[in-house]
Amino acid sequence: MDPVVGIDRAFWYIFIVSAVLLTGITLAMVYFVIRYRRSRHPNAADIRGNWKLELLWTVVPTFIALSMFVVGWKSYTGLRIVPAGSIQIQVMAQMFTWIFIYGNDKESENLLVVPENTPIKLNIESLDVIHSFYLPAFRVKVDAVKHFPTYVWFRTKGPGEFDIFCAEYCGIDHSKMLAKLKVVPQKDYETWLAQKNE
Amino acid sequence: MAFSPQKKSFAIKDPTISMTTTPSFYETPSPPELVGIKAWLLTHDHKRLGLMYLWAILFWFVIGLTIGLLIRVELMTIGRTIMSAAVYNSAFTLHGVIMIFLFVIPVIPAIFGNFFLPIQLGTDDVFFPRLNLLSWYLYMFGGLLAILSLFTAGGFPDTGWTFYVPFSIGTKHNVPLTVFAAFILGMSSMLTGLNFITTVHRKRSPAMGWMQIPLFTWSLYATAWVQLLATPVISITLLLVIIERFFNIGLFDPDKGGDPILYQHLFWMYSHPAVYVMILPGMGVISEIIPTFSRKAIFGYRAIVFSSMGIAIAGSLVWAHHMFVSGMSDTAVFVFSLLTFLVAIPSAIKVFSWVSTLYKASIEMTPPLLYALVFIYLFSVGGLTGLVLGAAGPDIHVHDTHFVVAHFHFTMFGGTGFAFFAALHYWWPKMFGVMYDFRRAYIAATLATVGFMFHYVPMFILGLKGMPRRSYDFLPQFSQGNGLAAVGGILLFSGIILMLINLMLSFRKNRIIAAANPWGGCTLEWTIPSPPPLHNFTKEPHIKEYPYDFSDIPDSPQKT
C-alpha cells in the first residue's frame, strides 16, 4: 500500500471514531442539561456510580485506543521501509535554504526535480541548527540534524509541483525556507540531471 | 431581570451562619502584628497568598493574551501586517514562556489550591505556611528573571519556549538564564506541591478518610506528586546547559560530538509531565462544579480519584511523543505511541463520569456551570485530536504544524483556561464575598466560546493542509484560514476582557453581597462565611461520610 494512503486511512479512522464519540458526549450533555433543568426536575436521583457501566467505558475505549495505535503504527512503518531501487538524493538544510545533491554531484537549491512513478529516498542532514524537511503532499517530515543523518522516502505518481517547508523553527527567515518539488516525466528528469550546475 | 436572579436568590445570607460575629481573613492579618501592605507581603495565611497569586497571575495572563492576539493579527494577511519577522519571533517566544511558565502551570494550584485545599480538608492552613510564602516570592522572582533573561542578551528573544539546541546555543541569547528562571519557577511549583502533599497527609481533618476527600483536592494531590518528581529533571537540564555553555563540554552541540536529541529528551521529560500539572487541577475544578449545580452525587467518585492518579503516573512516561520526527529510533516511536494511547483512557473516564452526573440531576444554569460545560466540549476536542498526534503515522504529517497549535490550545486554553474561568466564577463569591452580574458573564462566556471555535478550528485545517507552526509568513493557500482565525481571535479576546471587567465590576460601590453558600455546594468551603475567617472554621467541621452527599443541603438557593 502507498504510504500516503496508509496515513490518510489511519487519520480518517481516528477522525471518524472521535467525531462519533464527540457528538455522543455533546448531545448527551446538552440533552441532560435541558431535560433535567431544575425548574422541570427539582429532585435529583441519588446515583453514585455503576460499576458495570464504568467497567464498560474503561474497557471499550482501551480497545478503541489500542486499535488506533495499531493503525497508526502500521501507517508509520510504511514511511520507514524504503523499497529497493529508490533514487537516492542527499538533502542539506541550512539557514534558510534547502540544497539537493544528486548522485552525479549535480546540486540544486530550493528545487528538487524527480521522475514520475518512482520511489525516492532523501538522505537528510543539517549544516547548522535543526530544521525539518516537510513535504505535506506525500505526508513525510523528518528533522534535519547536524552530523545525525535521517531520511524520508516517497513514491511519485504523475507530474506535478509540490511545496516543501521547513517545519522546525530555525530563525528569522524560517517561514521563507521553502522549496519546490517538481515531478517530471523520466525523459525530462534525465535531461535535467545532465545539465551542468548553474 | 430574568438574567439576574442573584439579586434575589444568591445574596440572601444563610441564617445558620452568623457573619457579623466572625471577622473575615481580610480584617485579621496573620501574623497579627502586621499592618497595611506588610499584612499581605509577609503573610502566612494561605488565603491571602492565594489572592496574591491571583493578581500576579492575572497580570501575566493579560500580557500573554495580548501578545497572542497581536500574533494572530499579524497572521491575518500575507506578508507584513503589523510587525516584522524579528518582532514576530519574539512575540511567539514571549507568548509561550509567559503562558506556560507564568500562567497555565501555576494558575489553578497556586490560586485556588492555596485558597481552598486547606478548607476542603477541614483545616486552618497548609502544613508549611512560611514555605508557602517563599513559593510566592520564588514565583515573582522567577517571572521577573524569565522576562529579564529574554531581553538582556542583546536583541529580542527568539528561540521559542522550547529552547531547542543547537539553535539556542548558537544564538547570542541567554539560554542558561532562561532555563534558570524556568528552574526557579519549577522550584516554586515544586514547593507548593510538597506543601500540598504534606497538608493532605498530615493536616487533614482526623475525621476525613481518603475516600472522603473532595475531588478538587484529590486532583491537586495527584498534581503535587508530578510537580515534586518532574521538577528535578529541569534542574538537571539546567546544570547540563550551564556546563555546556561555560566549560564547552559538548553535551548537546553536534560540532563537539554532542547530541541535540538528548536535550529534547530532557526538556520533554519535564515539560510533558508539566502538561498534566496544567490539566489535572482543571479537571478537579470541573469535578466540583458539575455535582454542585446538578445537586447530585458525582458519578463514579472512586474512578475519578484513580484516573487522576493514573494520569499522574502514565503522563510521566509519554514525553517522547513530541519527538516522532526527531530522528530517534523506531522502537522508541513504538513504545511512546503505545503509552500515549494508554494515557487517553483515564481522561475519557472522567469525561464520561461528568456527563453521567448530569443524568437525572436537578440542573441549575449559572456562569460557572456554563464555563464547565464548555470545558467538557473543548477539552474533548483537544483530547480526541490528541489521538491523531499520538498515532505514529498521522503524527508525522501534522507534527510541528498548526494542527498541533490548535490541539494544544484546545486542551490548555479550552481545557485549563476555561476551567480557570469556571473556577473564578465558582469561587469568586467565596473569596471576596461579592457576586458578579450574571447577564454580562453569560455574554462574555458565549463570545469567548464562539471566538474560540472560529480561532482554533481553522488552525486544524491549516495544519492538515501543511502550514508549519511558528511561521511569520505563509503561502497563498493558507490565506483564508489565517484570516478567519484572526477574526475569531478578536472575538475571543473581547469575550475574555469582558469577563474580567465584569468580575472587577463586582467590587463597585453598590456591590451584591454573596451568601455563605450561594450555589448550594456541599464541600466544606460552603459551610463557612464568605469571605472565610482567618482560621477558616469557627467550630469543628462536620465531615461527610460521602463527600458529595447533597441530602442535607437545605434547599435550592432560589427557594431560600
Describe the structure.
The complex is a heterodimer of chains A (198) and B (560). With 198 residues, chain A is an alpha+beta fold. Chain A folds into two domains: 3-80, Orthogonal Bundle (Helix Hairpins); 87-194, Immunoglobulin-like. Helices cover 36% and strands 29% of the residues of chain A. Chain A contains three helices and ten strands. Chain A has helices at 3-35, 51-80, 186-194; strands at 87-94, 97-101, 107-109, 111-115, 119-126, 131-135, 140-144, 150-155, 160-166, 179-184. In chain A, the strands form two sheets. Chain A has a five-stranded mixed beta sheet with strand order 3-2-1-5-8, with no helix packed on it. Chain A has a five-stranded mixed beta sheet with strand order 4-10-9-6-7, with helices on one face. In chain A, α1 runs antiparallel to α2 (51-80). Chain A is elongated. The two termini of chain A are 38 Å apart. The model of chain A has no long low-confidence stretch (mean pLDDT 95). In chain B, 62% of the residues are buried. Residues 1-9 and 11-19 of chain B have low confidence and may be disordered. Chain B contains 16 helices and two strands. Chain B has a two-stranded antiparallel ribbon with strand order 1-2. With 560 residues, chain B is mostly helical. Chain B has one domain (23-559): Cytochrome C Oxidase, Chain A (Up-down Bundle), CATH 1.20.210.10.
Write the topology of this structure.
The complex is a heterodimer of chains A (198) and B (560).
Chain A: H1 3-35, H2 51-80, E1 87-94, E2 97-101, E3 107-109, E4 111-115, E5 119-126, E6 131-135, E7 140-144, E8 150-155, E9 160-166, E10 179-184, H3 186-194
Parallel strand pairs in A: 1-5, 4-10
Antiparallel strand pairs in A: 1-2, 2-3, 5-8, 6-7, 6-9, 9-10
Helix pairs in contact in A: 1-2
Chain B: H1 38-41, H2 46-74, H3 85-104, H4 107-120, H5 129-151, H6 167-170, H7 175-203, H8 215-247, H9 260-294, H10 301-314, H11 330-358, H12 367-390, H13 392-398, H14 402-432, E1 434-435, H15 438-464, H16 479-505, E2 512-513
Antiparallel strand pairs in B: 1-2
Helix pairs in contact in B: 2-3, 2-4, 2-5, 2-16, 3-5, 4-7, 4-14, 5-7, 7-8, 8-9, 8-10, 9-10, 9-11, 9-12, 9-14, 10-11, 11-12, 12-14, 12-15, 14-15, 15-16
